[in-house]
Amino acid sequence: MKILWAVEPVIPQIAELTGGKPSIAGGWLVSVCNGLLTNEANSLIVCYRAAGEHASVTKERFTGWSFEQGPLRYSPENERFFANLLRKEKPDVIHIWGTEYPFSLAMLNAAEQENMLDRVVVSIQGLTSVYAQHFTAGLSGRVVNGYTFRDFLRGDNIRQQQKKFALRGTYEIAALKKARHIIGRTGWDRACVRQINPDATYHFCNETLRPAFYEDTWRFDRCEQHSIFVSQGNYPIKGLHQALEALAILKSDFPDVKLYTTGADPRAKGLAEKLRRSSYARYLAKQIRILGLDENVVFLGGLSANDMKERYLGAHVALNPSSIENSSNAIGEAMLLGTPVVASYVGGTPDIVTDRKEGLLYPFDAPYLLAEAVRNIFEDGLLTSRLSMRARQTARLRHDAKTNLSRLDEIYTLLTQQKDTEQE
Hints:
Layout (H helix, E strand, L loop, with lengths): L1 E6 L4 H7 L10 H9 L5 E7 L6 E4 L2 E6 L8 H14 L3 E5 L5 H11 L6 E4 L4 H7 L6 H5 L3 H6 L3 H21 L2 E4 L2 H10 L4 E4 L19 E7 L9 H12 L6 E4 L9 H6 L2 H12 L6 E3 L5 H10 E6 L8 H9 L3 E4 L4 H4 L7 E3 L4 H13 L1 H18 L2 H23 L1
Parallel strand pairs: 1-2, 1-5, 2-4, 5-6, 6-7, 7-8, 9-10, 9-12, 10-11, 12-13, 13-14
Antiparallel strand pairs: 3-4
Helix pairs in contact: 2-18, 3-4, 4-8, 5-8, 10-12, 10-16, 14-17
């Protein structure tokens, strides 16, 4: 089977051939790629987003093709490039991973030109058209409409970022309306897809996560007690501002409580850092100061998969305070390891975490209930142990690489059969 992927990140298999650096995002594609290529009847062409002219790399049954694509503008050039590539390669299956960027629509338009729409399947990752509606949740109008020097130069304050999500969402909606086959994994994404394109065939398929998280197991005696790990908090949807409010409540009973998260520290140490700071970063820094959390919040910068795993293993609680999610890979990775999970009840999260069985859920707009959920884990060792064990059991089934690869192969086979019908 000849399979063509369209992806946003530079996956490690591409980076290895080009000598470049793999994207931090998209590491979960590694196992799927390797799994498909274990079948010698398969070959894989990966179109990936990168700066510069179109370039290709090849090794045995694996080929990579780069294309350039800004996040906000549709590229007719990419549509032509994809159409030529489809005409030349004649793939049996075309799999578009994600709808967040305009290249997804370009690939669908190219497939339509080449009479290949029936062999295209689109995977839902997030949905920017819906995320835009939740982008400013928990923030005041003053914060949302504020500017820093960096925001002014880039035209990129919180309100403008929300508008950019909505703009990307227009391409996303157009792509989903054109797609005939869609892969999803939660009741939330299925509901969203049904509202956009009720005629599309929806295929359920769980995700396989980054290989590192299938190894090792969280243990209470190895973790830093009263520590919380938030996998990212660099933009409002991730809800770090809500987590800070909860942290201030927890500090009254747990003075040693620590919240660790990735990314740059927003507490600027000089004029140059202040000038480079976004308005959301400025707001986080202000909240840390006002809430008296300077000694309780640690920013870790960028982390590799192994570094992230060690952070989960060392945390007392893995917290996901997002205003919207589909099925968070961060939650899945924490559950695979058994790190106790606290998460906001949003989007597809209730599909992957059963409240009080595999983790604790709370309403996004209630930081006091977030604090209470974390307190329960801090104080109740039996609850913590039970949540950890059950989460790990559930995640091992949901993210089983062989099961998920088999399901994906079933979907690809179905598309191949439709391709044969197309040609009759």
